[in-house]
Amino acid sequence: MRFGFGKNWQSYSRTALTQERITQARQAFDQLFQGIDLKGRSFLDVGFGQGLSLVCAAQAGADVLGIDIDSDNLAAVALTAKAMGHPDIPKARIASILDPDCVQDLSAKAGFDVVHSWGGLHHTGDMARAFDNACSLVAHGGHLVCAIYNRHWSSPVWKAVKYLYNRSPALVQRLFIALFYPVIYLAKWLVTGKDPRRKDRGMDFYHDVVDWVGGYPYEYASVQEVQDLVCPKGFECLHVHRARVPTGCNEFVFRRSATP
Predict the structure, then answer these.
(1) What percent of the chain has a predicted confidence (pLDDT) above 90?
(2) Which residues have a Cβ under 8 Å from the Cβ of 64 and sit 6 or more positions away?
(3) How many CB atoms lie within 10 A of CB 223?
(4) Mean pLDDT of 123-151
(5) 235 - beta bridge partners?
(6) Which residues make up the CATH 3.40.50.150 domain(s) of the chain?
(7) What does the pLDDT look like over 162-214, one tens digit per residue?
(8) Exposure class string for 124-143: b at 16+ Cβ within 10 A, else e
(9) Are strands 42-46 and 112-118 parallel, antiparallel or unpaired?
């Protein structure tokens, strides 16, 4: 059982991707990759979704490749590239980071300078193995840049909500969104003191609510748990940008040792 992220991302790219949000997305991407030169570097995006990061990396001069298991995201990337004024659709294909054949094929490229996955590895159904495979694809001296849902006491409750949503017929799913939209709005407003509709990273509140309520499979980890997954594989954690809300995504920038 799996949530169809691609349909939601197509809707976002078609109806919500304004120039203001594109500017926000570029600013957030530049901030996350501050100090990492992407020009001429190989860039793998695991779970490329709507393609904002994929297009940003391509426009920064990287040689990009995106993989995602949801074929509907290919259309979302095309819409995003057009909205961002990119002349070509970035290279992307349907594949799973959990598929050993996919990983073996990607490994033949002698490692990527950057492996990026913003909010993707925790939706694979096997986050630990997804991290193993993603880490193995980073070239020595390269970077792993990822974002993972933070562990919180409410995380198991949300996992149950997501499971029930995906087991429900379409009408009930719409009722889920109608119910949780004001709940999530109020919770975020109380935590941040800001209007949750004014999103960062170029996101849109309504599409984020659909993504959040429906996003299954769903795993989560504390900052330390993510570091414990990655650092023993020869990585150093350079930066952690903690989530603004308790169940949000913590961002990580890791660098792999330059020597085997």
Answers:
(1) 89
(2) 43, 44, 45, 54, 57, 58, 90, 91
(3) 16
(4) 97
(5) 256
(6) 5-151+218-256
(7) 999 999 999 999 999 999 999 999 988 887 888 878 877 889 999 999 999 99
(8) beebeebbbbbbebbbeebb
(9) parallel
> pLDDT digits over 56-99, tens only?
999 999 999 999 999 999 999 999 999 999 989 999 999 999 99
Asked if 230 contacts 237 with a C-beta cutoff of 8 angstroms, the reply is yes
How many of the other CB atoms lie within 10 Å of CB of 74?
18
**Cis peptide leading into residue 217 (ω within 30°):** yes
Quote the CA–CA distance of 250 and 220 in Å, as a whole number.
10
CA distance 69 to 106: 15
| Residues comprising the chain, all counted | 260
Question: Residue ranges of the alpha helices (H) in the chain?
Answer: 5-15, 19-32, 52-59, 72-83, 100-107, 127-136, 155-167, 170-192, 205-214, 223-230
CATH number for 5-151+218-256: choose from 3.40.630.30, 3.30.565.10, 3.40.50.150, 3.40.190.10. 3.40.50.150
CB under 8 A, 24+ apart: contacts of 57-62: 57/29, 57/90, 57/114, 57/116, 58/86, 58/88, 58/90, 59/84, 59/86, 60/33, 62/38, 62/113, 62/114
Q: Mean pLDDT across the stretch 131-153?
A: 97
pLDDT of residue 218: 98
Residue 211 CB contacts under 8 Å (≥ 6 apart), including other chains? 5, 8
* Residue appearing with tokens 């695991």: 46
Are 144 and 115 in contact by the 8 Å Cβ rule? The answer is yes
